[in-house]
Every structure is written in structure tokens, then in C-alpha cells.
Amino acid sequence: MAAMELIGSTSKFRAVLDLINMVAPIDSTVLIQGETGTGKEAVARAIHDASPRRQNRFVTLNCAAIPSALLESELFGHERGAFTGAVTQTAGRFQTADRGTLFLDEIGDLPLELQPKLLRVLQEKEFERLGGGRTIQTDVRVITATNRDLVRMVEERKFRADLFYRLDVLPITLPPLREREDDIPLLAEHFMRRFAQRLGKSIDFIPDGVMRELKRYHWPGNIRELQNVIERSVILANGPALHLQAIRLDSPKAVSPSSSTLIEAQRAHIVAALRKKNWVVSGPRGAAIELGVRRSTLMAMMQRLKIQRETSPEGAA
Ligand SMILES: Nc1ncnc2c1ncn2[C@@H]1O[C@H](COP(=O)(O)OP(=O)(O)OP(=O)(O)O)[C@@H](O)[C@H]1O
Ligand SMILES: [Mg+2]
User: What's the Cα-to-Cα distance from 253 to each of 215, 256, 311, rounded to whole Å?
Assistant: First the structure.
């Protein structure tokens, strides 16, 4: 896989890039923490790609996606006959990743009983397959990630302290997108170009109103959510500009206290644009263009948000 480009230029993100470059040449374990969709896996790959191991494999295992009974075999492999159904000898991820990097995703979901085994391979660089006596040496750089609070899990004795300290040698915490909103235009344009190219569409412009809306939203799903929103709007776009109509930032899923705030913010934003344009909706001097949406979309939004033309507008000329 080609080295992926990590987009971002805010100081918070540049600090992350500096850390990636700092930890890449070292073999110590890295623990990447951050909310969902903040780029934990992307950062793990970037570390591998910048490391002396880049010619060898980057192997991943999601600890939350595998039933715990099978996890041990996935990690360390098994001998033939180790358990019912083990008809052939199978290599585990630690063997497959030899001389490369092993990315253990959702490490907070690693069952307590497997934690000493992981600690051992990290410390001794050796392990045995299930049902096998032979000790296998391994040269693997381990990167882990989680969106759970491991410190709290250690306090609650759901995660072993000794393993946590071993994993936490080089911690990287990824900021949520809402804390680096100045990266949103860069990311949005990057995704727009990528999807437009992939779909063979010539969309190359995000109106100011749309960009403002993108920056205002709180992005609970972070970069992944932004990427999905841009993909959807590129698919639905039928002109050179990206429009808000496809961007349902007040998605019904966001039933949280913040969603009402978001709707309020959206309402206030639309009213402000309408006032500025003297309640003209369409045409070159209308609010629709200001907001980067179509006339019909704006009308629908006004209806949904119960926005009516103010009859005695305060402060209007
Ligand atoms: N800095 C970045 N620049 C460009 N694309 C990015 C960046 N960070 C993440 N992405 C993209 O955003 C998407 C989500 O990233 P990723 O899967 O790494 O997040 P994650 O933190 O592992 O999410 P989860 O917690 O849900 O597993 C991916 O498609 C990834 O390629
Ligand atoms: Mg991930």
C-alpha cells in the first residue's frame, strides 16, 4: 500500500506529525489514543511507513473484532490438533509480522487472561504456539490503539497495570477534529478532490457558506465522518460546487444535547444570512448563494426550522 498522506497543518496536528517522525525509527511500543475516526490506524501506518521496517509487513489485528476464545490463536498461532478443528498448523500474527510491524487495534478489548501473554512476548520477544512446546523468536514492532480510557481501566482492574506501562512507553494522543477546526478546509478539499477524481466529476469548489457550516459542526465521528459527508455530497453534486444539501449535519443519529445546539446554530446561521440579504432567498443576491445551497434546499430548511420572514425586523434597513 502506498504511503498515505496525512493532512493537517494546525499546531496540534503538526505536533502529532513530529511525534510520528520521532517514534518511527525506534522499536519501542507506541500507544495511540483518540476518539473514533481521529486517524489512529492511519497514524499507525504512517509510523510503519516512516520506519526502517517499511519494507516488511504491516499486520493488523482488531482485538474487539475477534471472539476472545480465538484471539490467542490469532496472536500466537496454533499447532495441529491444539484444539478441536485445528487440523493444520497455523501461524499467528506475531509470526506473520516478523521483522515488520504488528498493529493491535482496540487493545482495551484484550481479555485480561491474555494480557500476561502479550506482556511476555513484548518483554522476551518469544512465544509458543497454542498446543506447541517450541519457543519461537520474534522481531516485531508493536503499535497499539484504543479509544477507551486505559488509565481508568487500570484503576478498575480491567487492564493490567504492568502491560499498560509497557504499552504506554511512547503515547500519542490524537486531537478530535473539533479541536483543530482550521484543518477542516484542508481535509474537506483533499477528500473532495479525491472523490471527484475517483468518480470522474469536475467538482472543485466549496462555497464559503458550506465551509463555515463544516467548521461549525462538532464532528463526533471526526475525520471519518467528514470523509463520508464529503463523499456523499460529491456523489450527489451536479455542478462545480459542493453543496450543503447533501450534508445532513443534523443527522437524526446525533440525538445528544449538542444536537439541539447544532440545530439552533444552524437556525441562527440561516436567519443571519436571510437578514443580510434582506430576506431575498434566490437569485444572485439571495441568501441561498450566500449559504452555498440551492433555493429549494434553503426553502426546505426554512420550513423545517420554522423560519419565517420577520415582519418587523429589528435593525433591518
Ligand atoms: N490526517 C489525515 N489526513 C487524511 N485522512 C485521514 C487523516 N486521518 C485519518 N484519515 C482518514 O480518516 C479515516 C478514519 O481514520 P482511521 O481509520 O485511522 O481512524 P481511527 O481512529 O482508527 O478510527 P476508529 O477509532 O473508528 O477505529 C480513514 O479513512 C483515514 O484514511
Ligand atoms: Mg481504527
Answer: 19, 9, 35
